[in-house]
Amino acid sequence: MALRGLLQLSLVFRSAASVTLRRNIGISAVLFNKAKDLDPVQKLFLDKIREYTVKSKTSGGVVDAGPSYQKNMTEEINKLQRLYGGGDLTKFPDFKFQEPKLEEVAK
Question: Phi and psi dihedrals of 25, rounded to 5?
C-alpha cells in the first residue's frame, strides 16, 4: 500500500519536473541565442533589413526607385484610371449600399 502511494507520488513529481525543465530549457535557449553572437549570414541579413528600413523611411517610398520606375508607375495608374473610370486609386473605395424596399406579402 505504501509502495503504491510512493510510486504515484514519484510519477506526479516526475511529470511536474519534466514540464518545469522543458519550460526552463525553452526560455534559456531563447536568452542564450540573444546573448551569443549571431551567425555571420544571419547578421548580414539583419543588417540589410535594418539598412533597407532606414532607407525606406528617409525616401518615403520605394528604395532606389529611379525615373523609369516613376514613369512606369504613372503609366500604369493612368491605364487603370482609363479602365475603371478614374478616381483616386491610392484610396480604398467608399461603398454605400441602400436598403432594399421589401413588400409584405399577405398569406
Answer: -65, -40
